[in-house]
Amino acid sequence: MSSFKVYNQEGKEIANLELNKAIFKLPWNDDLVHQAVRVAFANQRQVLASTKDRSEVRGGGRKPWRQKGTGRARHGSIRSPLWKGGGVTFGPTTERNFKVKINKKMAQKAFLIVLSAKAKDNEILILDDLKLSAPKTKEMAKIMKNFSQVKTALLVLESNNENAKRAGNNLPNLGIININNLNILDVLKYQYVILTKSGIEYLTKKYVASK
């Protein structure tokens, strides 16, 4: 087990919490993390560019001019890729699939390795609890001001903490995510990961029990 400080909303240290080594003390693995990140980016990619081939372009049903005798090159349709406004040869279509697969256990381990790296660098901040009386941005800003070392942070919340979620949405350097949706890309995107004690318990039950 590894011990971490627990803070209240005022930024004062109030306790120590033992973190499970199976989640927060895994050795770094460059290749596995790189593979998991590449897969995550690929699976987020959207198909945007789309072109029409000559069969999809409108018009061009008749031959533009007769085959011979005009002195011009022979053409059968203005929909040919040789013509301006014609079809595109081998252009991108909406049928492309950028999805990449990765073994579920590999993806999970890569995620835990990144969490462990955050823990090693003391970039995991544990709060005893996070309760706001109202979903006001100034209240969340006041809490974040108590942790002056935090430049950018990912705040991991339980689904029932709607006040904190709405209060933090307008802070530019604070990302908000439900603990069920926590993923490797968001953890890497921010300097700090902020978790509550109940969030730590949730992750411990989820990942230690699944081994």
TrEMBL record:
Signal peptide: none annotated. Keywords: Ribonucleoprotein, Ribosomal protein, RNA-binding, rRNA-binding. GO terms for molecular function: rRNA binding; structural constituent of ribosome. Residues 60-77 have a biased composition (Basic residues). GO terms for biological process: translation. Residues 51-78 are annotated as: Disordered. Pfam families: Ribosomal_L4. One of its GO terms (cellular component) is ribosome. The keyword Zinc does not apply. One of the primary rRNA binding proteins, this protein initially binds near the 5'-end of the 23S rRNA. It is important during the early stages of 50S assembly. It makes multiple contacts with different domains of the 23S rRNA in the assembled 50S subunit and ribosome. Forms part of the polypeptide exit tunnel. NCBIfam families: rplD_bact. Part of the 50S ribosomal subunit. Belongs to the universal ribosomal protein uL4 family. HAMAP family: Ribosomal_uL4_B. This is Large ribosomal subunit protein uL4. It comes from Candidatus Azambacteria bacterium RIFCSPHIGHO2_01_FULL_40_24. The gene is rplD.
